[in-house]
Structures are given as C-alpha cells and as structure tokens.
Write a structure and sequence with these properties.
With 119 residues, the protein is mostly beta strands. The protein is built from no helices and eleven strands. 28% of the residues are buried.
Length: 119
C-alpha cells in the first residue's frame, strides 16, 4: 500500500524557518511530479510548490523567493524549506505525488502537517 508520510511542521515565529519532509513508501513503480499544498481555515486548498521528475519547479507567487522545493530520488523523499515565514503562511500543509507504473499513475496525498506562524 502506498503511503506518503509528512514531518516537520510546528510553531514558529514570524521570520523563522521550517523544513517539511514527505516520504513515499510502498510499491509504486515510479515517482513523477511531487508537490506541496496548503489549506488555511476557511480557505480552499492551494498549490504552494511543485517539482517534476526532471527537476523543474513551480511556486505560488506568495512564496517565491522564500520557499524552496527539492527532492531526493534515492530516498523517495521531497522537501519544502520555508524561510521568512509570515503569519499568512499558517495552514495545514499537504504533500502529494503522482506515483505508479507508467500505465497507471495516480495522485496520492499525505495526511497533512500543521504549520503555525505566530509570535
């Protein structure tokens, strides 16, 4: 069974940093695109950052220059380094990935990790 397990959330003061990790486990063939999304209370889930199998990245305008997504293919793990955090970054952060054999790729989601930016 495929699972995505996140870690690294928590409480941080404005201007601080956090690193989120997401590890994929199980039998799934290949990992294609990976990403991070977030959902704040009362708001829709939004894309934060994505990275393709080729390493191309894309960021939401609100996090450009502050957040960095990266991946470690050998560990089936990807990361989101968040710097200069703002209160408006407070949300539940979810990782996702397109996994599977090439003829049956599916999107999987992690369970979510809370990030709270507050003094």
């Amino acid at each position: 069974q495929v699972q995505l397990v996140e870690s690294g959330g928590g409480l941080v003061e404005p201007g601080g940093s956090l690193r989120l990790s997401c590890a994929a486990s199980g039998s799934f063939g290949g990992i294609y695109a990976m990403g991070w999304y977030r959902q704040a209370p009362g708001k829709q889930r939004e894309s934060v950052a994505t990275i393709t199998s080729g390493g191309s990245t894309n960021y939401a305008e609100s996090v450009k220059g502050r957040f960095t997504i990266s991946r470690d293919n050998a560990k089936n793990t990807w990361y989101l380094v968040m710097n200069s955090l703002k209160p408006e970054d407070t949300a539940v952060y979810y990782c996702n990935a397109d996994l599977g054999p090439w003829w049956s790729v599916r999107t999987y989601w992690g369970q979510g990790t809370q990030v709270t930016v507050s003094s």
